[in-house]
Amino acid sequence: MEGIFKINGVERKLSFKPHQTLLDVLRANGYTEVKEGCREGECGACVVLLDGEPVNSCQVLAATAMGHEIITVRGLGTIHNPHPIEEAFVEAGAVQCGFCTPGMVLSTYALLKENPEPDEESIRRGLDGNLCRCTGYVKIIKAVKLASEKIKERGR
Amino acid sequence: MGELKWYFPRSIEELRPLLKKEKVVLHGGGTGLLRGDITRYKGIIDLQYMGWKYIEESNGYVKIGAMETYNHVAKFFPENHLLNIALKDAATNPLRNRITIGGSIAYFPPWTCIGAPLLLLNAQLHIITLDQEKNIALKDYLLHRRDFKQSAIAYITVPRTHQKAYFFKAIRTRTDHPAFTFAITLKDNKVHGFLIGTTQRFIEFEFPASLEIEIPPYPFFNKPQFSAKYQQKLFEVELRRGIEKLLNKGE
Q: In this structure, is the dihedral angle defined by the CA atoms of residues A30, A32, A33 and A36, taken in order, positive or negative?
């Protein structure tokens, strides 16, 4: 089947099988920044924003996402113009292997949109769907707090 | 095998003929569907355009559209409401943005967090069948599931406030699938509650409002999280803790 997907602000007509997940369709069409982890909705590596809310793209059938706004981490910032959240993750030392980072950044983005100055419990709840095997989460929590400050300063 | 077909009804009139089709399945949030092999179906009926995503309050009751998600419902209710307590930490944040109230009720897996609270609140369902719309208590819906095969839940209604209640989920980690859940309240000097996670879809129980109760064995089954024997022990301990909290709250 075919459908229109609005990905990072760009509408694209994509062909896919009716039983395919959004994760598979995105990766097959070049959005490899959306990482394949557990494929069970547990690890959060595949998180994207669907109409502004973080979802596990491995748990979303692509057909149901047609016509909706999809943001991947590439839609937030670039290597030459990183989003404050991406800067914060680097500055706080919250990136080791980097595999969880796209999902973490998007969950952080959604969290800070709703709660610009979250406490630690809110951060843990907002990112409870993103697993990291490397960092032990301490630096990630620090990164979210730093991102909150940066966004507050810059108004972005 | 033909290709799986997607349907996107926008009204009850469009939905009804689809419910009659063979081997079709309803899609709420979709997370339950992906646990099985969806290619065994001929069609998927996506309910997202039915206008069933809303929460409205009126005359002391809250009407929740079947397509509302766990996160939205949790955020609507205050921190001491059973639905906030049960849903705010259910599954994970990305899953709470997909799991729908209607989907959860229709699927009703043993690990559901919403089952016991909704039963305790005597949630009422508004169901669309092939030829009518009807209201039914969740308890009756679960007891007569086979009568509602070709139907869809449009919304549920719960009270805005409730008496002191206690909710417990047997988990190992914060985002674990619960091995079982229960919700209790005090009613006429008795502890009234519902247990989910045994071989029965749900168990309704009642005990005197005392810590000196004898708890019978319940039909738990071995799960990856805990053995049946451990679940029974855990239930006994946590039920008594819950009763103690209800008795001592004095609010």
A: positive
* B39 has a chain A CB within 8 A of its CB: yes
**Spatial CB neighbours of A60, under 8 Å, sequence gap ≥ 6:** A21, A22, A23, A50, B30, B98
Q: What ipTM was predicted for this assembly?
A: 0.95
B88 to A47: CB separation less than 8 angstroms, yes or no: no
A129–B95 CB contact, under 8 Å:
yes
Cβ–Cβ contact B176 with A under 8 A: no
As a whole number, the mean pLDDT across chain A is 97
Torsion on CA atoms A53, A127, A83, A98, rounded to nearest 10: -120
CA geometry: angle A118, B91, A28, nearest 5 deg: 95
pLDDT digits (tens, 9 = 90+) for B100-146: 999 999 999 999 999 999 999 999 999 999 999 999 999 999 999 99
User: Cβ contact (<8 Å) for A129 and B44?
Assistant: no
Q: Is A44 on the interface with B (CB under 8 A)?
A: yes
Rounded to the nearest angstrom, the minimum Cα separation between A128 and chain B is 6
Nearest to A54 among B34, B93, B175 (CB): B93
A41 part of contact set with chain B, CB < 8 Å: yes
In angstroms, the Cα distances linking B98 to A58, A121, B126 are 12, 22, 21
Residues in A touching B177 (Cβ below 8 Å): none
Instruction: Return d(Cα B65, Cα B67) in angstroms, integer.
Output: 5
Residue B53 confidence (pLDDT) above 70: yes
Q: Which residues pair with B155 in a beta bridge?
A: B65, B126
Among B196, B232, B231, B195, residue whose Cα is nearest residue B214: B232
- What are the pLDDT digits (tens) for B205-237? 999 998 899 999 999 999 999 999 999 999 999
